[in-house]
From TrEMBL:
Keyword field: Metal-binding
Keyword field contains Metal-binding: yes
SUPFAM superfamilies from the UniProt entry: HMA, heavy metal-associated domain
Gene3D superfamilies membership: 3.30.70.100
InterPro entries listed in its UniProt record: Heavy-metal-associated_CS (IPR017969), HMA_dom (IPR006121), HMA_dom_sf (IPR036163)
One Pfam family named in its UniProt record: HMA
Superkingdom of the organism of origin: Bacteria
Annotated ranges, domain HMA: 3-69
PROSITE patterns: HMA_1, HMA_2
Record-given protein name: Heavy-metal-associated domain-containing protein
Source organism: Bombella pollinis
Length: 69
């Protein structure tokens, strides 16, 4: 079990955004669980084993339509 990573996310406006980002993050085999919240706008990510590089996490967030902040 690795330490969870919390990252701020810009551009989320509703629960649909929260679900969309959660879905994209949890589709990554490297991510065990993603807990996304609007208030505050962030994602708390638990990894399966080794954490993903920051650049890959940022790419997933952008793929979901949001911006890592
Ligand atoms: Cu939304």
């Amino acid at each position: 079990m690795t330490t969870p990573l919390t990252i701020s996310v810009a551009g989320m406006t509703c629960e649909g955004c929260v679900r969309a980002l959660t879905r994209v993050l949890e589709a990554s085999p490297a991510i065990k669980q993603a807990t996304v919240t609007l208030e505050p706008p962030q994602a708390r990510i638990l990894f399966q084993a080794a954490p993903l590089p920051q650049a890959e996490i940022n790419a997933l967030i952008r793929q979901a339509g949001f911006e890592p902040a």
